[in-house]
Structure formats: C-alpha cells, structure tokens
Amino acid sequence: MAFVKVDNLIKNYGSFCAVDSLSFEVEQGEIFGLLGPNGAGKSTTINIITTLDEQNSGTVTVNGCDTVKQRAEVRKIIGTVPQDIALYPFLTAIENVKFFASLYGLKGKELEESAMRALEFTGLSEHAKLKAKKMSGGMKRRLNIACGIAHHPKLIVMDEPTVGVDAQSREHILNAITLLRDKGATVIYTSHYMHEVEEICDRMAIIDHGRLVAQGTEKELVSMITDSKTITVTTRFPHGFDRDGFTEQLKLLPDVNSVRCEDNTVRLDVRLTSSDFSYIIDEIRKFSLPLNAVQSTVPDLDAVFLALTGHELR
Ligand code: ADP
Ligand code: MG
Question: Ligand 1: does its nearest atom lie under 6 Å from the Cβ of 43?
C-alpha cells in the first residue's frame, strides 16, 4: 500500500482552480519529488498533505489516515519544512529546534539529544548557541529543516528547501535528505529545479497548472518521450576516408538506429536500453580513427517537460 495517496485532489481559490484532479502515490522509504514551475500548485498540494489546508474535493491519506478526518493522527507522523522559513529570531538554533520538537511531545534528555542530532544532521552543531536572527539565509534554511525533523517523523515534507541558498548549504541539504531516506523516512520534496529532482528523487510527479503531467522514475519519464540517446564521437577523418562505408558499417551494429558523419564528428542514435556502448567504440577503432572525445546525451526532465506540456519548465 502507498504511504501517501493523493486521490483526485481539487483545490479552488474562488473561481481559480489551483489543484485540478491531482492523483499520485508515494511509496514508503522513497524520496518523491513534486516538480513544477512557480504557480504549478506544489505548495497548495503540500499544505493539504500536511493538514495546513483543506481541499474542495478528493482525498489524501498518509499511512492509511485521512488528512481531514484523522488530522491529529496524520500530524503525529509528519515533519514539515515550509517554503517560508518559520523560526523564532530571538531564540538560538538549539532553542528553536527544541521548541518545535517539544510540540510533538519530546521532553528532557530525549528532547535535548534529538535536537542536537538534528543540528548535526544539517551541519549546524557548531552554531547551536547562535540566535536565528544572526544566521545567513542558507543557515536559516538548514535550521528550518532541523526544526522539521528533530521529532523523527516517518514522513518528511519539504517545500522548496534549497531556494536562495549558497552552494555549500545546498549540498548539506541534499545530503541530509538522502540520509533521512536511508534511515527509513519517506520524503516528499518539491522543487522547480529539475537537476535537484534528478539528483536525489527516486520517483517524481511533474505538475503544471495544478494538473499531473506525468509520474514515475526519471527513466520511465524519459522513455515516455523517446527510446533513444545520442552518442557523439569527435575524431579526425583522414583525407580520402570512406565515410559512407564507415557509416554503413556502424549502422549494422546492434541497437544503433542511425549514424551521421559531419565534419569531424560521428553522431549515433542508440536505443536507450543499451547501456554499454564499448562495442561501438571498438568498431570505430577498427578504422584507426582517433577518439578525441566521446559524449552520451540522454534526454533530461527538461526535455520531458517540454515534450509533454509544450513549454519550458522555467
Ligand atoms: P507553487 O508552490 O507550485 O509555486 P502554489 O501552490 O503556491 O504554487 O500556487 C498555485 C496557484 O494558486 C498560483 O497561481 C497561486 O497564485 C494560487 N494561490 C495560492 N495560494 C492562494 C491563495 N491563498 N489565494 C488565491 N490564490 C492562491
Ligand atoms: Mg510553492
């Protein structure tokens, strides 16, 4: 059974439909990405899953509990990292984390230890006594995460946790998310950064204008739009080289759909299912051609988004 099940969710703001018949499922123990441009409906969906908002119709269950009818049960197992940073500026890092974790019933030694571990996790243990108001934007983001995870939630929901952070904080955040998953948590992660979702998410849903565009693993999504990748070999053809004969020879190789030679490059369209293409390189070597560069281009989520929606992600 799916850990989170979003079924035919609709959310209207007046006559505007922000989430339109959205359905997707998140499996236990995975990092699930909700990918879409600004205004796609990611935060609205997240706020309904985390019981901060209510839908007009449709249902969401978390670990089998309905987010409207069993709100208290759902809240107990969720850790939320909101898009807008929610911290007490005059409290220190550890005081902030302890405050949020205490709302979940943690007390005494357990509270102290869990708060310290959450700070370690986000690379902030050295700054435990620093007031939130003195922190950089990236540190505040990390503290925001520490506050959301200290009570060991089974489901962690993070809404664009890397927006506006420096590269170092971003690395800390992405590593922390992967570690949380490896320790058994289920993570829902929203972003409009395609590369982050590609980097850390096991499966994802792409949404646009409140509607589901596609869901699956990156591989599954890419295979929805194409069944091939391009291998580009840069070489130097000697004077009088028989390019036609060479092209014909390469076309005979398994999994090669087409071959084009231009200037000093050979471009092969190869089936996605073929992962080891050393036999292609071996064949080119037989013609005593130098291999100056070899590049493999697989379509990415940007290409998937463009192909399925007709416009760019950003
Ligand atoms: P995302 O998080 O993907 O950027 P949101 O869920 O925040 O998108 O917003 C989806 C759409 O709903 C946007 O067009 C936004 O302007 C609109 N919206 C969000 N919250 C409200 C609200 N409280 N009242 C009216 N419109 C809203
Ligand atoms: Mg948002």
Answer: yes
Tokens 């739009």 correspond to 225
CA of 43 to the centre of ligand 1 (A): 7
Name the DSSP class of 128.
T
Task: Report the atom number in ligand 1 closest to the C-alpha of 37.
Answer: 3
Residue 14: left if φ>0, alpha if ψ -120 to 50, beta else—which one? left
Report the nearest-CA residue for atom 20 of ligand 1.
44
Is residue 39 lining ligand 1, measured as CB closer than 6 Å? yes
The CA-atom distances, in angstroms, between 309 and each of 183, 212, 302, 303, 313 are: 36, 11, 10, 10, 9
In this prediction the pTM is 0.87
Phi and psi at residue 251, in whole multiples of 5°? -65, -25
Share of the chain above pLDDT 90, in %: 79
Specify whether the CB–CB gap between 302 and 194 falls below 8 A. yes
| pLDDT on residue 124 | 94
Listed residue (308, 312, 256, 313) closest to 284, CA to CA: 256
3-state SS, residue 124 = coil
| Atom 7 of ligand 1, nearest CA residue | 43
Q: Which domains does the chain have, with CATH numbers?
A: 2-223 (3.40.50.300), 227-298 (3.30.70.100)
- Rounded to the nearest angstrom, the distance between the alpha carbon of 313 and the centre of ligand 1 is 17
258 half-sphere exposure, CB direction, 13 A CA radius: 7
Read off the pLDDT of each residue in 264-291 and give the average, rounded to a whole number.
89
Give, as one character, the DSSP assignment of residue 214.
E
Atom number, ligand 1, closest to the C-alpha of residue 83: 2
Regarding the beta carbon of 38 and ligand 1, being less than 6 Å apart is answered yes
What confidence tens digit (pLDDT) does each residue in 168-224 have?
889 989 999 999 999 999 999 999 988 889 999 999 999 999 999 999 999 899 988
